[in-house]
Amino acid sequence: MPGITRKKVKKSKRLSVYAGPGSTYVPPLDNSRYNEYIKGSMGKGIQAEIKQTKPFKSLEEEVSVALLRTADQLAWRGTEMFKQHGLSSTQYNALRILRGAGEKGLACSEIGERMINRDPDITRLIDRLERRGLVIRSREQKDRRVITTRITTAGLELLRSLDRPVTEFHQQLLGPLGERQLRSLIRLLEAVRRRTE
User: By C-alpha distance, which of 76, 50, 78 is closest to 65?
Assistant: First the structure.
């Protein structure tokens, strides 16, 4: 607020807020009750969401459960959106990867390495996409053992029709966090993934 300055109070080592003559003295926050202030300003928390009566054994366990719960909710919302277009989340992911690969295409093993979610049967996944005419497979001339998968024109058109809904989906769910919190979240999640490698 304009005109608000901070100065030390002789009777206390902590900072207080002084707004000038005639203003009301505002005492500093009690740092020993920091967690209570934070909890009061946040949501109900993962323990209440999953109706767990006993407290978590550790902060790390609580964070792990919160991450799993969040990932599951995001995946469920994505599944519902892609279902409207006759796709599963993994099928969309495979098509997106193949679009990025361009005319060169990719082998099944390379698609599997780039998938967001691990699918134990990439071959069956590609089979379903090929039956719909969204991808095509062919053997390489230099090495007949290698089968390359490429996205078709129909596959590209389907992805183009999904580009806007997917962008709006992400913005609706995560946009309210703002750029600063989103970038901070990216760094934290990267640190967690490094521990799982």
Answer: 50
Measure the CA–CA gap between 9 and 6, rounded to whole angstroms: 9
The token pair at 164 is 């806007």
Residue 3 has what pLDDT? 52
Q: Is the pLDDT of residue 30 over 80?
A: no
pTM beyond 0.90, yes or no: no
Q: Can you say how many angstroms the Cα of residue 150 is from the centroid of all Cα atoms in its chain? A: 27
Are residues 89 and 163 located together in one domain of the fold? yes
Query: For the chain, what's the residue count?
Result: 197
- The runs of H, that is alpha helices, within the chain are 34-41, 46-49, 59-83, 89-101, 108-114, 122-131, 153-174, 178-196
35 & 91 share domain: no
Alpha-carbon 164 to chain mean position: 18
Q: Which tens digit of pLDDT belongs to each residue from 141-152?
A: 777 778 899 999
In the three-class reduction of DSSP (H, G, I as helix; E, B as strand; rest coil), residue 197 is classed as coil
* 129 within 8 A of 95, measured Cβ to Cβ: yes
